Amino acid sequence: MKNIITKGITKVYNPDTIPVVALDGIDLQINEGEFTAIVGPSGSGKTTLLNIIGGLDKPTHGSVTISGTDITKMHDNKLIEFRKNHIGFVFQAYNLIPVLTAEENIEFVMLLQNRPEAEREQRTTELLNAVGLGDKRKNRPSQLSGGQQQRVAVARALAPKPDFILADEPTANLDSKSTENLLDIMSRLNHEEGVTFVFSTHDQRVIDRAHRVITLVDGKIATDEEQKPVK
Amino acid sequence: MLFKIAWRNIWRSRTRSLVVIGAIIVGVWAEIFLMSFSEGTVKSYINNAIQSEISHIQLHQPDFEKDKEVKYYFNDASAVLQTLQSTPHVKAATVRSLSNAMISSTKGARGVQIKAVDPGPEASVTKLDEKIVDGDYFAEGKHNQIIIGKSLAGKMNIKLRSKIVLTFTNLNGDITAAAFRVVGLYETDNSMVDDAIVYTIRSEFNRLLGAEDIAHEGALFLQDPEYLDTVTSVLKTEFPNLLVQTYKEISPEIELFDSQMQLSTTIFTVILMLALIFGIVNTMLMAVLERIKELGMLMAVGMNKVRVFLMIMLETILLGLVSGPIGLALAYLTVLYFNHNGIDLGYFSEGMRQFGMSRVVFTTVRPSMFAELAFAVVLTALIASIYPSLKAIQLRPVEAIRKI
Q1: CA distance, residue B9 to nearest chain A CA (Å)
Q2: Strand partners, B86
Q3: Which residue, A132, A145, B143, B375, has most beta carbons within 10 Å?
Q4: Within-domain flag for A231
Q5: What does each C-alpha distance from A146 to A80, A107, A188, B339 come to in angstroms?
Q6: CA B22, CA B383: separation in Å to the nearest integer?
Q7: Roughly what angle, to the nearest 10 degrees, separates helices B252-289 and B292-300?
Q8: Under a CB-based contact definition with an 8 Å cutoff, are residues A170 and A157 in contact?
Q9: Candidates B5, B294, B303; nearest CB to A95
């Protein structure tokens, strides 16, 4: 069963000087196929929670288990390997490799997985078509708009066939049209291919599309509700 | 893909990369040029010393080595000469009678060494006939001919065809004086030699010494210096009663000069490589620090530390691989040009002559130097890449990206 289970996650910054509690005992389960938004005011711990779930940061206390594997006890190199195969990331600032074209950016993560060339090529084409950028495959990030870059980033996150995709404020830098476009694509991937998305967001348009909304306040879960998406 | 990323990353900051590439090109070029200039200088010094003075191998009566007196001669010099000339790998040979003497002129007196030679064989070994700048080489049928250095003639106010008196000790230990007519003035690339050595004819000088067909020195020039040890051992067997010495034994300062030059070139190489290392480290560190976020993202999406390390290392090595061959090619062309045309150091020629060096230096380079330098450049790039690469893998993705 593919899922994310967090138990009593606490994250304290500067524990020896001026302690700042970013997360305070988070218990959470996210299952395969969810389209979940983590919301809350600035400083509520959304990004910290996503960082810890994604294995980019370690909790001060508590554990994160992804599909049965406790990642909080993993060493750096093992964690990198784990992320490569199980978690896809979509960053607010896109963070594509500027010297690679759209298709090379997507292919790159599959190369890290040592996938055969034919499979890489086929999947790259599929994903570029899925995000509506089949005609931009040879463009470098600097030749793409923000919305297009973020769609490439989504395709890149999907390329290694991860269990989950974590997206931190993916629409924060996009205009309305690009946001709608991106949400349509992610929503379709969730519906049709069962891809699991977990967002952190302030954006009401993203919140409206989510099936489940987890609200954080001061590092604690204030509400955790299922909802019927607007579209 | 790693290679592709590394290669493209180099050209992200074109100007910065071109500056480093330019620095490596100039460094490699300067290094090889300096090496070839040093090598050319050493060769010129050694060749001058061998051709004008020492030759490849010399033979003496063993006691002559310790105390250069006229009584330490060997007999049947003509037969010795014939044997030397017929020894395999010997290009030319000569025998000489030697004596220290006092040369007198209206301007005073001065100590010199008389080298009494057989004109033909001497010319074949030292090319003395080609070094005559005024007057003639020894002519047949004339008596008491002497050839002196042009600079000595200037200092002693001796004119061509004038008579001079040489005072020396004969084999009986008596002081003898004889008058000679100056038939020629010679000039070599070593002004100290020009001031100190005068040449006359052996058969006549031997009579003045009081003997027939004796010589104090046999000297020979080889077809190729690589036969030095072979011919030396043959001659040692052939002439067990004579002391056979190579130019290295006779003039150890030649080896010293050579090794000093090599040492200073090595020191220069190390300094240059260190400067290059700092230049490359600086550039690559900038490249890493301005890509912190990107490197963090690469690690976040699954690029392990070994690959990140290799990528930065590859970028650094590629800088060396782009610039190294260009520097080597430029250096090759420069060395080739000056190997044919020489570098005329006319401005320093007097100083150079005092040290026995030609005013024109022909750059020479061992082919292995290019391979050594290519290796040094790659090694430099490798060493220079370690710190920036380590810096890159020390990044924590969460801190590098700040936010996922």
Answers
A1: 7
A2: none
A3: A132
A4: no
A5: 27, 20, 20, 60
A6: 19
A7: 70
A8: no
A9: B294
Chain B touched by A95 (CB under 8 Å): yes
Cβ atoms of B45 and B188 within 8 Å: the answer is no
In whole angstroms, what is the distance from residue B338 CA to residue B37 CA?
Answer: 9
Closest listed residue to residue A57, CA positions, set B68, B402, B115: B402
Q: Is A78 on the interface with B (CB under 8 A)?
A: no
Q: Quick check: B1 and A169 CB within 8 A?
A: no
ipTM comes to 0.84
Say if CB B170 and CB B116 are below 8 A apart.
no
Is B45 buried (19+), middle (13-18) or exposed (0-12) by CB count in 10 A?
Answer: buried
Domains of chain A: total: 1
User: Average pLDDT in the B46-60 region?
Assistant: 86
Query: Which pLDDT tens digit goes with each residue over A37-91?
Result: 999 998 889 989 999 998 888 899 999 999 888 999 888 888 888 888 889 988 8
Angstroms from A51 CA to nearest CA on chain B: 7
> Which range marks the domain in which residue A7 is found?
3-226
Q: Does B403 sit within 8 Å of A91, measured CB to CB? A: yes
Question: CB-based contact (8 Å) between A112 and chain B?
Answer: yes
Query: In the prediction, which pLDDT does B239 show?
Result: 93
B40/B261 Cα distance (integer angstroms):
11
CATH number for position A157: 3.40.50.300
3-state secondary structure of B136: coil
Quote the minimal CA–CA distance from B22 to chain A in Å: 23
Under-50 pLDDT residues of chain A: none
CA distance B305 to chain A (A): 7
Q: Do A112 and B300 touch (CB under 8 A)?
A: no
Kindly write down the DSSP assignment for every residue of A160-177, as one continuous string.
T--SEEEEESTTTT--HH
**Whether A168 and B1 lie within 8 Å, measured CB to CB:** no
